[in-house]
Design brief:
The protein has one domain. Helix content is about 40%, strand content about 20%. The chain is built from eight helices and five strands. It has helices at about 5-15, 25-30, 50-60, 70-75, 90-100, 100-110, 115, 180-190, and strands spanning about 80, 120-130, 135-140, 145-155, 175-180. It has a five-stranded antiparallel β-sheet with strand order 1-4-3-2-5. A hairpin with a 3-residue loop joins strand 2 (about 120-130) and strand 3 (about 135-140). Helix 1 (about 5-15) runs antiparallel to helix 8 (about 180-190), helix 2 (about 25-30) packs across helix 3 (about 50-60) and helix 3 (about 50-60) crosses helix 4 (about 70-75). The radius of gyration is 16 Å and the shape is globular. It starts with a helix and ends with a helix.
Length: about 190
């Protein structure tokens, strides 16, 4: 089972955003708010669970302000599946893309990470803000060998008041990770 320092190192290496958050600060703020498994730090730290990994991904991808991480985790985990998903989806992630809540879906994708390795299809997870939305797009090769989208599913939250926004309303952001990061994170968690 992976420890938090190894997970944070992987997420930092995979994050290509120039102004992304410091993952160690995201983890600190999530731990203080009770959104990560409690335990010692360093070698004696608790193993990272699927829920911990999902919470880290949500907080680190949905906001550039680590102090908003716990609030963002609650908001994004509760997002609901949008109608109109387009498939078919590979068997490895079929349960995840049918999951009603985004938090549970992300945990299922992480659990299926090892099954995603070496497949002919590609997956891209996109988390958007300030209006909360997450999209999973699946790509496969057509007859010409070109990578084309074969499936798309999204989760969102009905925004009924201004507190549902996660940041500056003038600045729309989108953070993306591929199945390669999910596979690597899955391998760490289950090693």
């Amino acid at each position: 089972m992976a420890r938090l320092p190894a997970v944070l190192e992987l997420l930092s290496a995979a994050d290509s955003r120039p102004s992304g958050p410091k993952w160690e600060i995201v983890a600190r703020d999530l731990r203080r708010a009770g959104c990560l498994t409690e335990g010692k730090r360093g070698l004696g730290s608790a193993p990272v669970s699927l829920q911990d990994a999902a919470n880290l991904l949500i907080a680190g991808m949905a906001t550039s302000s680590p102090s908003k991480g716990p609030e963002v985790v609650e908001l994004y985990r509760g997002m609901r599946l949008e109608p109109g998903s387009v498939g078919p989806f590979p068997e490895a992630i079929s349960d995840a893309v049918e999951e009603v809540s985004f938090g549970s879906a992300l945990e299922l994708m992480l659990a299926a990470g090892v099954q995603m390795d070496g497949q002919s299809w590609r997956l891209l997870l996109s988390i958007q803000s300030p209006i909360p939305r997450a999209v999973v797009a699946v790509y496969g090769r057509n007859n010409l060998g070109e990578l084309v989208e074969i499936g798309r599913v999204a989760w969102s939250r009905a925004v009924t008041d201004i507190r549902s926004f996660t940041g500056d309303l003038q600045v729309s952001t989108e953070a993306k990770i591929s199945e390669r990061t999910l596979v690597a994170l899955s391998r760490l968690i289950f090693s």
